[in-house]
């Protein structure tokens, strides 16, 4: 045989004549003979050796302590539990074959101190079909004893009432003699001699009845004996061993035929002792399956579980030899509690299970033994073929790590290593793990070894190097007569079989043959998904992605160009489109596939809604999906999408319609509605039966031939296949049913559970079909690889996108990209053809994502360009704005940005000036309108498509580079306009500039006189800015300075400026006024103003002149706020020869000195600010001096402030004149003091101090009256304005001490 052509049959010893019962040990037939298996065939692993030791220790403990024990024999279906008990039986009974097994011999050797010579009776029980645990255990013991010891008496485990009744009837009919002849010849002894006396003579135990012949008297006594009496039990034993022997077999299915389990276990313990056994070993098989079948009978299950406790502890402790129970367990008993059982018995059952858990040991037959067992019993290579298998496995070892991890399935039941994988090749550990999990659940007639054997038979002809696919496990699991573990699982398995039939039928139609490699591969994938649906928690079957499906069925799909997982995903997607409600997926890039099986058929619902599948509905759905994947917003008039092209915002318009039909898409629809936009016209992938994509294609070609030019792209798809159109129609019906709760109406006769199932199935179908058809759109529109079953009629020559723009005749969509990416790609090509010189601002430098340049970023760039111009063409840009400036300045060729500095370029100055020189309409280049510059940039220089803000940046930069001034509607602008404002009406003017010396002198003076700082570089903008700032301040100063001069002139006498002599303040004000007037003469002429400022001459220092102008506003405010009338009253008092006069003269001198001095030397503002307060104090002091004292008798009543009204109509009246005036000479401080509330002055002295003068008010009285009248008018004005507000007037006397203190202030 040629190397490389070997099959598995050639290299493995595959026994192809194995029957269904092979590999299965039937303990119900006993432990002897061929049915029990053989020790020689048993594979003892290290783990199994330890478990044999555990089992033997359990038996030793029971024998030594004469105490019953129990243990769970835990293992998966097919793990060899029955075979383990067979070998254990051989070990306990000292069969020679045990010593031939090295590991087994090692386990047994540790128990040689007690095991030799011991004899055990092992009783197997197959519990399926048992009435209850009592009858199963007791009757099973009787059957085993009858088989092994046919002459031995039957143990008293049956209830004797019915048996004795039948015996009485027979005795009456036959008579005593005939009846006795039917019984055994002698009454058997109840207990053999077991002890000797001191002389060695045998002694009978108490209660021992020696064997004797039956007599009438013995029969009467036995029939009359109560239950439990030895005579009664002896008679019963004689009957069941004699004339009523059939009673034992007939009682098997009658629960009431047996004694209680407590008494029965005691009876069989005694019976085994009588037969010479040292212990009884019970093996309970299929206990869990038996209880599972009765789960609906909650009380029964609860009672039976509690009976298991009796195997260990009993109300009847009389057990001469121990009973050791091994309970086969594939499923933990505690799993039966919970969702399977509801009701009041749950608590009792939980307590019983917990009690069992604490008292029952576990002998664990682990699944990791399976590889060793399979290698020894099933996968034996033929002689000399080991190297072939090694070479084949090396190919698996070269697989990718993902494939190796999936096949190894390290977290599975067998916990296999890579060496274990090698030992079970061509099986995989993942397959074995799934087999372990599902074999006991789905197939209980064949062991795991038998299933493996069948897999080998099925794949015997496969080439060496080909792993047995996991999907093939489905065939051997569902084949045969086995039944599922539970009704629920049985139902799910049946649904799985039905679905597999449907899927297989579809795949046969698709591939044409069951031998087609693609059919075999897809069928295996489906079967793998079915296994996962039945056992979702098996690690190997979780999250079945395309890669995992391919790995688990390694070798089913081969590809050199496309990754295998991608091919599997495509296959699953295609299958998903056929079964959208059953086959589901999660995720996009590497989706997880799963099957969801249901017995509810939604097809009748879809048939009922068939009339809702209309062409118009299909078009609307397709348009909505396309707009969604394209990122298009459906506006009120047009569907549009914003596109970021070269860092700028653009708009693409979209039209969806039948291109071939002028009624649907007129000619004018093939041009954008808004200038500057582009347009996409998109056709849909189907039409009436008589039309094909070639008709749409020809319509576009005719438009091009007719000279229709527009920035428009027409996107033509291939047509959907019939399969895809059927899926689209199915989706339309599903959508109809799910919208507006129509499903409730269509399922009104369904049960509530079925309504929910129907909705869920339809929702899943909607999601699946939507995903499938959306993916198919990319295929028919030419941007994705077309999969089988998607495309029908094709676009001629594969030209999916046609252009009506002559500059962009051959647009090409990009395969493998999304719709949105292709729109950006096609738009980029079209815009680039329309605007080839448009700068590319690139992506956002911070995020790397497409983002349009913002007006704020353009403004920032202009600010840095301006700063660079001020600094000689170069400036260090702040780090946080460096990337922004670089992004804009470099593509526009305004400057270059390196790691920090921005270096300006003069390219645009040259370009614009040359364009202006070439323009025939521009005769005067000294003034360039902005819109002319904009036109030159687009038309002459070719920079079309620039946004207005970008063009404005170029124009503003040109103004800086060419040192031009801004003007608006032929008038000079105070400053450059904001970028957004540059437009019609604005122009750039070439401006004459002052000399360098004049500019420098003007900058210096502007700083010293006006506090204005300006750029040292002489440009039109800096000159204009300097002039504007000086002009603004000069206007303010000129008004203030003029006001100060006028106010000083009006109040010259009071201020001490009335003489003809010049004073510093007036001189400075005169020079300031002159300078400001000269500056104001130049109006908007910035250059003239700067020259004027530079050439101005004045005698004062800059410091004094600056102070005079800068403080003029404050000085004028102080002058306007001065109470000149009050100050005049003070001047009137200055002629007095007393302290009042001194104070008045002192105030006037202070004001005069401040008014004459320069503002820098002495500010006039604080001097005037204190005039009112000081003047009022002086007037008040004078008034006190002049006030006449009150007469001594009668003493006027004292008054309070609240009792006096200020005015002549008050009470008492306060006259505005005073009849008595004291001369200045007579007035003294003493006379001016006193208490205003009542003068306590000697009346005689008072009269002597007064003298009469001519009538009429004195000057002081006149001033005081004037002040009081002003206060009164103020109060009356307030009350007129606020008539509802009460007014409180408070006054108090000021004593001499307080007055003196006030004067000192």
Automatic annotation (TrEMBL):
Domain ATPase PglY 5th intervals: 857-959
Classification via InterPro entries: PglY_5th, PglY_C
Region of interest (Disordered), residue spans: 1188-1239
Domain ATPase PglY C-terminal residue range list: 1003-1182
Name of protein: PglY protein
Originating organism: Streptomyces zagrosensis
